[in-house]
Design a protein that fits this description.
Blueprint lengths: L1 E3 H4 L5 E3 L5 E3 L8 E3 L22 E3 L19 E3 L10 H6 L5 E3 L22 E3 L11 H8 L5 E2 L20 H88 L1
Parallel strand pairs: 1-4, 4-5, 5-6, 6-7, 7-8, 8-9
Antiparallel strand pairs: 2-3
């Protein structure tokens, strides 16, 4: 779960919103990602950021005005720390004590000038990635070779390994954090696709049913038309027979009339 600064003050309490409805927020213990970029620190402290975030794995403090990291709380499970665009010039020795499981550290845009200021990072045995973009230390001769030599546990410096191969996207992720988010997104997309497929299938079935119904109706109409045609033909035949019968009846009568006329003439 990722939280931003606006949610930080209330993420461990229940509170009343504008409609006086009680809102219960996520307990601090469940927070794994926290983004506090562009907040203003007070004497190196961020209000609300405490050691109560015991399961925190990702913390972003970009451009918060930090001069040192000495006031950061102890976060034993933190793996990725974003500290770019601050004014940190040293004092990195506390990181190994407070953040012992750190694997990714971004110090880009800070006031680090000498390779020696990075020496305390040797105690971070699990540190794999270090970013120092826009720090004065990057202008030193043999900067990359010196840093890799000082910190042999590093895999990537400023996004590239010792052989200048760029880090892959998976190498930049914190284990168990971004992967879960991606899985949730993929599951959500799969569910959407499934729903769309179901809708399409239902639509196709509906069209097929309509076509079948239409064909059946046409067949029924055709049969009814044929039956009506047969009935009309039968009626016509009956009328013809009736006319013939009348003619037959009339012919004997006509003959009798002719005979009577002949006798009268005699």
């Amino acid at each position: 779960m990722r939280f931003c600064f606006e949610e930080l003050k209330c993420c461990k309490y229940s509170y009343l919103n504008q409609e006086n409805v009680k809102i219960t927020t996520t307990p601090v213990i469940e927070v794994r990602e926290l983004v506090l970029d562009n907040c203003r620190s007070n004497e190196g402290k961020i209000e609300g950021l405490t050691a109560e975030f015991v399961n925190l794995e990702f913390l972003s403090l970009i451009n918060v005005g930090l001069i040192s990291v000495s006031n950061l709380p102890k976060l034993g499970k933190l793996k990725k720390l974003e500290l770019s665009d601050n004014r940190i010039s040293g004092g990195l020795d506390v990181l190994a004590e407070k953040l012992p499981n750190l694997t990714h550290l971004n110090l880009s845009g800070n006031k680090l000038k000498d390779i020696s200021t990075l020496e305390p990072l040797k105690k971070l045995d699990g540190l794999k990635s270090l970013d120092l973009f826009n720090c004065e230390v990057t202008n030193l001769n043999d900067y990359r070779e010196s840093v890799f030599k000082l910190l042999p546990q590093l895999t990537y410096l400023d996004g590239y390994d010792v052989e200048d191969r760029e880090a892959s996207d998976s190498d930049g992720e914190v284990d168990g954090v971004d992967d879960d988010d991606d899985e949730e997104d993929e599951e959500g997309e799969e569910e959407d696709f499934d729903e769309e497929d179901d809708d399409d299938e239902e639509g196709v079935e509906g069209e097929e049913e309509d076509e079948v119904s239409g064909d059946e109706e046409e067949e029924d109409l055709g049969i009814e038309g044929e039956v009506e045609d047969e009935d009309d033909e039968d009626d016509d035949e009956e009328e013809v027979e009736a006319v013939k019968g009348e003619k037959r009846k009339r012919e004997p009568d006509d003959e009798d009339d002719d005979d009577d006329d002949d006798e009268d003439d005699d």
